[in-house]
């Protein structure tokens, strides 16, 4: 299978502070260098005939050279999509429309939606973010631009599977994508944790929603699965991921997530120093090593429910990252106190609900007077 897609994690900046966010940003924002992006695009086209690019973050539109990145993509006649939280999308759309080819080459906007109601979505993300994403969807619909919604299911929104599909249909989304939350390594995981046995019930409901609704509903191959051996895009070499420092690594679920104690690094190469071809060679070795380890582990047949049926969970564990276990979470703990949300770092209402001991430190955007 040929490499179909390059994914760029272009910045760790974000206006939000979602409870399920895996990113662990530093106190100073890091943005992927525009010159390096252009070089990687050229190498990707010449070596692999790359025709599509995915942009993620953080919030990609906050990269200081976001529109120049889009121009670099469309100048090479490559199509693109991006994952966005929908904040200030009216302004983003206005700027994108300044050059028609930017939107002509757009394949899709992927908006993150984490609940069918303002209450659920905002409690996981931030106050006001549900309205932002609804407005972004309406703007796309009015302009005939394709968009989908993607949700990460967890204990706080898993009961809204059907309502979310209905909402997506009503808003004119082209697709609805469901995935499962990975552990963050923070104290918030206790409120997000789904018991291992719950995934089958959720997947069954997603399949029934797919049969009932006209909108295309799909379930990401990064979620739990019935077949113990499942091969993701990265293991198929269909997609590669570059992080905000310019390193080719195994996938977006590893990038920027705390790690400790692993023998093998998921970083295939720093593209500031090595060519995409050389990094791809190492990427191949990492994938082969991981797939072999997966097969050996399955052969031993001593895995718990999560590891047997959730390859990503098992994969994160191999690289020393937070992962689900049968009764909660294991792996390194992360502290996200350095988050630079729009309203300065601090604790949200959901943080304080999860750990009342945090109340004295509460200074964030949703804080009420103490
Ligand atoms: S929108 Fe939320 S999940 Fe996405 S990068 Fe920002 S804080 Fe993280
Ligand atoms: S975490 Fe591992 S198994 Fe999951 S998508 Fe990434 S590389 Fe594939």
What is the topological layout?
Blueprint: E1 5-9, H1 34-48, E2 52-56, H2 66-75, E3 79-84, H3 89-96, H4 100-104, E4 106-112, H5 118-124, H6 129-143, E5 147-153, H7 161-171, E6 175-180, H8 189-192, H9 198-212, E7 216-219, E8 239-242, E9 247-249, E10 267-270, H10 276-300, H11 305-309, H12 311-318, E11 323-325, E12 328-330, H13 349-354
Parallel strand pairs: 1-2, 1-8, 2-3, 3-4, 4-5, 5-6, 6-7
Antiparallel strand pairs: 8-9, 9-10, 11-12
Helix pairs in contact: 1-2
The structure holds iron/sulfur cluster (2 copies).
Q: What can you tell me about this protein's structure?
A:
With 370 residues, the chain is of the alpha/beta class. The chain has two domains: 5-339, Aldolase class I (TIM Barrel), CATH 3.20.20; 346-370, no CATH class. Helices cover 36% and strands 15% of the residues. The protein contains 13 helices and twelve strands. It has helices spanning 34-48, 66-75, 89-96, 100-104, 118-124, 129-143, 161-171, 189-192, 198-212, 276-300, 305-309, 311-318, 349-354, and strands at 5-9, 52-56, 79-84, 106-112, 147-153, 175-180, 216-219, 239-242, 247-249, 267-270, 323-325, 328-330. The strands form two sheets. It has a ten-stranded mixed sheet with strand order 7-6-5-4-3-2-1-8-9-10. Helix 2 links the parallel strand 2 and strand 3 (79-84). Helix 1 runs parallel beside helix 2. The radius of gyration is 20 Å and the shape is globular. Residues 338-344 and 362-370 have low confidence and may be disordered. The structure holds iron/sulfur cluster (2 copies). One iron/sulfur cluster (SF4) binds at residues 222, 232, 234-235, 250-251, 253, 311-312, 315-316.
